Amino acid sequence: MEFENLLTLIKTVSDSELTDFDYEENGTRIRLKKKKETVVVSGTSSNVPVMGLQTVQPLGQITESEAKMEKDIADGEPEGMLIKSPLVGTFYAAPAEDADPFVSVGDQVKKGQTLAIVEAMKLMNEIESDFDGKVAEIYVENGQAVEYGQPLFRIA
């Protein structure tokens, strides 16, 4: 198997819901396995840069959303629960251009409620709340590119 095809295969499996994949060709066997994880983190995030497909954050620089989080903590606001992007893509706050956003700051949300959409490779991935609470902060703008693990919402 050619190297480019192997990279495409790895990316496809990574972006899919598959957790296990086996492939054998001409005596060479490839086995890809991934653990399914929840990308909701409590408390503050680390300042470790996250490398994505679209942009790379240089060491020592913090993103706008990280700066907002640090300001929130310094101002003494409750930390709440962070909802982070489970993949690299484009953030959409509403189901369509002319529609109202799924949620706004101050809205009460229930576990399982759709908060936004992240588009990746022409697939629309709904971002759902993993707990009940109130939307305290929205860290990204509609149409903004987001990285894996980037904070999207703070639920208090």
UniProtKB/TrEMBL annotation:
Q: Which GO terms describe its biological process?
A: fatty acid biosynthetic process
Cellular component terms per the entry's GO annotation? acetyl-CoA carboxylase complex
Per the record, the pathway is: Lipid metabolism; fatty acid biosynthesis
Q: What CDD domains does the record point to?
A: biotinyl_domain
Listed GO MF terms: acetyl-CoA carboxylase activity
Q: Which Gene3D superfamilies match?
A: 2.40.50.100
Q: Does the keyword Plastid apply?
A: no
Tell me which UniProt keywords the record has, alphabetically.
Biotin, Fatty acid biosynthesis, Fatty acid metabolism, Lipid biosynthesis, Lipid metabolism
Domain annotation Lipoyl-binding: ranges: 80-156
Q: What does this protein do?
A: This protein is a component of the acetyl coenzyme A carboxylase complex; first, biotin carboxylase catalyzes the carboxylation of the carrier protein and then the transcarboxylase transfers the carboxyl group to form malonyl-CoA.
What protein name is recorded for this chain? Biotin carboxyl carrier protein of acetyl-CoA carboxylase
Q: In which organism is this protein found? A: Blautia obeum
Q: Which gene encodes it?
A: accB
